[in-house]
Fold this sequence. Notes:
- 2 copies of one chain form a homodimer.
- By secondary structure, the first copy, chain A, is of the alpha+beta class.
- Chain A has 2 domains: about 15-40 and about 100-345, Bira Bifunctional Protein, Domain 2 (BirA Bifunctional Protein, domain 2), CATH 3.30.930; about 355-450, Rossmann fold (3-Layer(aba) Sandwich), CATH 3.40.50.800.
- Chain A is about 35% helix and about 20% strand.
- In chain A, the strands form 4 sheets. Chain A has a 9-stranded mixed β-sheet with strand order 1-5-6-12-11-10-7-9-8.
- In chain A, helix 6 (about 175-185) runs antiparallel to helix 9.
- The two termini of chain A are about 45 Å apart.
- At the A-B interface, helix 1, strand 1, helix 2, strand 3 and strand 4 of A face helix 1, strand 1, helix 2, strand 3 and strand 4 of B.
Amino acid sequence: MAARIAPLSGFPEWLPGQRIVEQHVLDTLREVFELHGFASIETRSVEPLEQMLRKGEIDKEVYVLRRLQAGDEAEVERARQLGLHFDLTVPLARYVLENAGHLDFPFRRYQIQKAWRGERPQEGRFREFTQADIDVIGRDTLPFHHEVEVARVMAEALTRLPLPPVRMQVNSRKLIEGYYRGVGVETDEAVAGVMRVVDKLDKVDRATVLGMLADEVGLSAQQAEACVALTAISTSAADLTAAVKGLGVSHPLLDEGLDELLRVLEGTASLQSDRLQVVADLSVARGLDYYTGTVYETRMVGFEHLGSICSGGRYDALATDGRTTYPGVGISFGVTRTLAPLLSRGLVAGSRSTPTCVLVALPSEDDRSGAGEIAASLRGRGVPVEVSPTAQKYGKQIRYAERRGIPYVWFPQDDGSHQVRDIRTGEQVDADPSAWVPPAEDLRPTVTGTVKELR
Amino acid sequence: MAARIAPLSGFPEWLPGQRIVEQHVLDTLREVFELHGFASIETRSVEPLEQMLRKGEIDKEVYVLRRLQAGDEAEVERARQLGLHFDLTVPLARYVLENAGHLDFPFRRYQIQKAWRGERPQEGRFREFTQADIDVIGRDTLPFHHEVEVARVMAEALTRLPLPPVRMQVNSRKLIEGYYRGVGVETDEAVAGVMRVVDKLDKVDRATVLGMLADEVGLSAQQAEACVALTAISTSAADLTAAVKGLGVSHPLLDEGLDELLRVLEGTASLQSDRLQVVADLSVARGLDYYTGTVYETRMVGFEHLGSICSGGRYDALATDGRTTYPGVGISFGVTRTLAPLLSRGLVAGSRSTPTCVLVALPSEDDRSGAGEIAASLRGRGVPVEVSPTAQKYGKQIRYAERRGIPYVWFPQDDGSHQVRDIRTGEQVDADPSAWVPPAEDLRPTVTGTVKELR
């Protein structure tokens, strides 16, 4: 197959040593999620288009499928109605409705899968990317404490990953709405309008936002100033109540939201460290309409230009079949968004490019069968082993190991004994194939790099 | 989100308990592949269409992507050139060419990913499915012993999976070609023609095949009979040479292929058991033109109608950039094809529907924080734990665990001590949250079912 070969922009791929970092990250996420009793599911990669477009703002970015040589126009039309999912939340909602009779609620699931968006690629934005989501879905009701729980679980996972320090920013939709109502914003429509305009503060300047609040939502200058003032609060639990109360607004829903936000901060306090901060940030609103309680975003220190690497929130009605409503809360970690800049800058790397820990050297090609028995014996104790692909001079066989970062080369001796050499130090010792094991830190490839040293 | 919800034919999805079986299978495959020094890679899900269509017979089945609202016709045309990959071999060839300067050869990689084909769904044929491939790719040359190795590695993996007994059928393209040449089939074109026609023997009857060999390839009746006779040989190593020689045909390439086939059978002899047979089956040719040496297919006993669940072979030129050629050998295991009928018939199942091993019961909602500390202590020793979502009566909390198959419920006592109950037996004992661990077989969900009992 000869061809013009070039990477496709927005579709990242990793070399084997980089993939080892990604595997480590995925394994760690799975480990933490399962320790907390989240069950794995995978959903199909496609959803009916009409299903996906309910989240209207995203429709331009969907990849639609058609069969290359669909037989007739009707078939083309049917096939056109399938699109690749652009997140893991819409498929979850559909999966819950489809399988509600077979699931136990609250349903705790994690899902680590690829998603696709046809948008213009740039750092932090890909056309194909891996997400890792946790959600807790209730039937009809879902207690608030799960809003604390998912933040705790994701914070624990983030802390165990080889990342720069991260800052989780939490807010409450109830707090914001209660505050707006306290300021005198009366209708649901106006409240939603204020959220939508204020959410633009990271893109347009303060004066423009104030103008839009007056012109588009009909607020007085004083109301507009008050709404914008709330977004300036970014603080730890200790100062939050004073900062909010200092704005002089009161409303029962504001108090409820403030209380909930404090409970999230207090519930995650024991996880905070120099690697992970959790703060109240009252500018965080999340664009999507369906959030109704706690909302989460996360920034990575030094990589703030990526935007949020880990986001989510509480939704009172993600899915409903008319009779039953399924409220939930979830957080989604952007695996590709987070790792791509670290991998492409070499800030994290695998300690070797292969799982192999030991290369069994071959005195001659006739020894391949015996070498295979040595390898099988070592593998029986969980040691990844290869037999040398050729019986070249030992120097060449050692270089084969060196190029891949394989730490040990095993030498069968003429007298039937064995020696194993750590090729990093050159130390070579007698070894018994039925008993030898490497030091635990050499058994599997590990993650190295400057980011790791931050830990 | 209210909607008409229905499964999509050909896009299988699993419930959490079924997904546990799939995860077990994927974990086992990864474990075996890594023990043998195969490195993981993932390739992007899309390839340029022109790249995929080099394997001509498959073009009708590709899913093509377009952006839902692509801006102009030129963009539509560009986007149309991307299709979802239909296997993991074409992407591997492209990946090797694209990254040759960064890879070490022979390059040993495994790849576990989804693939898509727009064909009509039926049992064993899906539109979205997971494949698990191993390949060894050389630069310019690749020693024969890797053709033995990949069969050994995949046989070892298959033996460790919760499947009915499997039968791996091996053949050699060299043996077939040498035999045809010995019969007097002279040109490369005629040899390929015979292979193509003889490969139809599982679909059309013997007389029709004999007629096609005469009419389409121009063989004499005697030559056609001889070519068909070869396909009847299906035997173990002990009888293979006699069976082939008994046909009275000789050619140097036939001898070379026979010798290689015997080496594959001998190399896998130690892996054979009542769960796995490896036999020479001279009817196996594999449709694809690019195979040049050993070819592999695998049937699952009782599920022969699925076709081959695990197939591959040696190819001398999977990829070339004009200067360098990359020969390889690989086998691809159809994870979805194999598991779907076992899961949907309930022949295999997860022992529970969640990773959770222990549910910490809540005396009252005020005890949630303390229960969280007990849970964290257990998790610190690798035990998956949930805290009860509500402080209902203990009977209800126990039923929460029962419904999910969670084996243990933890009860904090009024006096500060603790008890843990195995809810399967009702046995309840004192326990220390800083020391207690469950029996190893309860720590994680396992795979159960009649298929498992065959092992």
